[in-house]
Amino acid sequence: MALQDGLLSFAIKETIFLPSDRAGIGELQELELVPDVEVLENESYISITGCLQLYGKYEPIRDTAASDGGGTETLVQAMTFAPFRPEGSEGPYYGWEEQIGHRIPLNITIPRERIAEIGDIYAIVDSFDYKLEAPHQLLIDAELKIAGIALSDQTEEPAAETFAQQEEEEEAQPQEEAWEFAQVASDQADGVPQPATLEEIEQKLAQLEQQMERQAEPTAYEEEDAAALYDNGSLYDAPAVEASAREYYQHQAYGEVTDSYEQHSLRPEETYADEPVAWLPGDEPAIESAGYDSPVYGTQATNADQGEQWADVPAQLEEPEEATLAIHDYQDPDFTPVATEENELDAPAKAEKVAEVAEAAAEPEAGEEAEVRVAISGKPSREESGNVNLTSIFSQASRAKQEALQAQEAESSSSSSRKGAVASASPSTMKAMQNLTSFIRHKEERSSRLKMCIIQRDETLELISQRYSLPVSKIVEVNRLASEQLVAGQILYIPQ
Amino acid sequence: MDKIDFSEVCQNYRARVIRVTPLDDCYLLETNRGPKELHVWPRVDVMRWSFAWRERLARQGFRGLERFIRTRDSKPYVIAGNQGITMTDHVRKLETLQPHQDTAYQCGRVVAMMHLSQQESNLLPGVEYLQQEQMKAETECARAKSLFESYRAKFAKEKGEKRWVGSLLVPLIQRMERSASMLGSESIDPDAVSVSHRDLLGDNWGLVDGKLHLRGFFRPSLSVQQRDVAGYLRDLYLASGDLAKIDSFLDGYEEVKPLSYADYTLMLAFMARPREIWRSVEAYVNRVSGGKEAPVAGIEQALKSQQAVDLLLRHIADRAERPRSETVDEPL
Hints:
The structure holds 2 protein chains of 2 kinds.
Chain A: E1 7-17, E2 25-41, E3 45-60, H1 64-67, H2 75-78, E4 98-111, E5 115-134, E6 137-151, H3 157-172, H4 175-190, H5 198-216, H6 222-229, H7 233-254, H8 257-266, H9 275-293, H10 308-311, H11 313-318, E7 333-334, H12 339-353, H13 356-387, H14 390-413, H15 416-441, E8 446-447, E9 450-454, H16 461-467, H17 472-479, E10 491-494
Parallel strand pairs in A: 5-8
Antiparallel strand pairs in A: 1-6, 1-7, 2-3, 2-9, 3-4, 5-6, 9-10
Chain B: H1 6-12, E1 17-22, E2 27-31, E3 34-41, H2 44-59, E4 78-80, E5 83-89, E6 95-96, H3 101-120, H4 126-155, H5 161-183, E7 195-197, E8 205-208, E9 211-214, E10 222-224, H6 225-240, H7 243-256, H8 261-272, H9 275-289, H10 297-329
Antiparallel strand pairs in B: 1-2, 2-3, 3-5, 4-5, 6-8, 7-10, 8-9
Helix pairs in contact in B: 2-3, 3-7, 4-5, 4-9, 5-8, 5-9, 6-7, 6-8, 8-10, 9-10
């Protein structure tokens, strides 16, 4: 599931020239880049428009005339001095501070058919940096990430297959049956009695919805995470994604489901890395195994309603770069690693052949690709770890075990129909939930603020904490400060 | 100061003193020949020089000024010990001069005539005064820098007022340095620099029966001619805020005595000194360094006037550059 994170990354490089009548930048005191985007949904495309708002405060440079020579070549030049105070300002002015305000326009258009899934679209600014080229010239270097969109051509292939498969199954089986299976699976996992009343069903729905949110839109957690942790998040992710990917493919390749699931359940829970494993196998391996066993898998037949967004997946794979991305002339569209496509391309092959050799070959590839993705998709999984409690880990693990048993049974008996139904039921429920959640949260958009503060000479952590009304410990934690000693010019990230 | 026997002095002037009233810079004598002012000159050479330019100015046709009354021996002054004593008429009906544009023009003319008269005399070499000014400017500049360093070392961590005042020292020093360097500008010919009184103030002007009257200049403090013009124009602009009057004054001046580029350079060098700000900042810094609280109102006031002065500086600089650019544009 972590592989399905949709994160569009754009490098933003903007040079800002202050008007000549403005005082030049002497010392930057504060700089903030806030995304202010709006998501417009059309029939044919999704448009992310708006701007990045740059706010800043700086202490103006004083000796402008001296620095530009001023000279005594002509008397007019000689009579040009650094002002004692900003032009036009009246009255006392003790802390002369100038402000920067700048808008970086943004317009990203993505054809709708390229989008596998739209979650809560939000924009975050990551790795924000600046360079003062001249007193009137400021170079902004940031990375804008649009999260909540899963591009079908890069991440969703397995899911797409699954849904296609699931629809096949649904054609074969009545909807109630699928629901029933879903509930059975959930019961096994959660260890609660079969829901009999409407409230119980609703409760179950709510639970599933929560689970769905976590799985389908793991990036949604990134907002807080990015603000709090900026770049460091990736440190946590590498093992997380890698682990999940490895287990995932091991299961596919060798069918040693029991072993791998036991590994999951036995895995110590103190590391963030292991956390996604706790819930990932609960759904995905089941889906995958269903896919392999399904006789109609390779046909890619589409259901009129649910399958249409997956219908042109192969076409997208052929020209994955074509998604329209227009961002202020000079932003390079920087998709999440293209390498994953290979993985997706492999998936149908594997599915069709159901050959262990081919899958075994795909395994290391998958591992590699997971590593490529790490930098981008890592944060959510780390964040999710915060949300997982012991109960959920055990319940997920127990569910995983039971499903593994099911899988074993299915394999031993070679009767794929039941297990296939189980597997397909789960995604269909998930999809239903997805629709539900997207209905509720459809237009919701969020933005993450990354505020940074440039430490001035003699500023202390106490001062900063007072200024932003934050506890010192929070700043220390977020910035991973080894000591409370600050150095002039140091950049502190201020959580919002 | 030696005790002056007024009766003895007055005997030289054939006047009988009825009453003596000490004023700011002179003694007002009520005599049988009318009210007189008795001025004591600590420097006899300056007195002689003053006498010379007054007479020359009168000969040029401007009689609205205080001329030294001659003694019984036809001498314009009395030497008593190391000091010189002069007697002038005391003008009772002196009206304050309202600075209008036309009077500014007249003033400019008179000041130019006065300068011409002064530079005809070789009694006091101008170059010495210019060197004095340069040295003084450099000393002040160095003092400001050391003050800035010590202030920064002490109050760099401060916020608010103290930090603000510290930040003022940078542009302040820049101006002082610029002023000092302009005083030493190569374009200035030291031999062409002449002496005048250091301060030409609004008080030096008055109207007697509707006619312009120049008074004062009994103090021995001297400097180069451009300094008194700079000071006067500065005061005039701060009082009136009217650049047209400045232009009128300079027009009048240049009608009598053309101003060279070097003259303008010197004039601006004197005018560019942020005297008020420096004084107020220095006072503030000294108080604060002594651990006392100090108000910044004075600095605020000085900053306001400096903003106006900056406009004047640029205006005069433009005026100084104009003839140069015109000559450049002239067709061959």
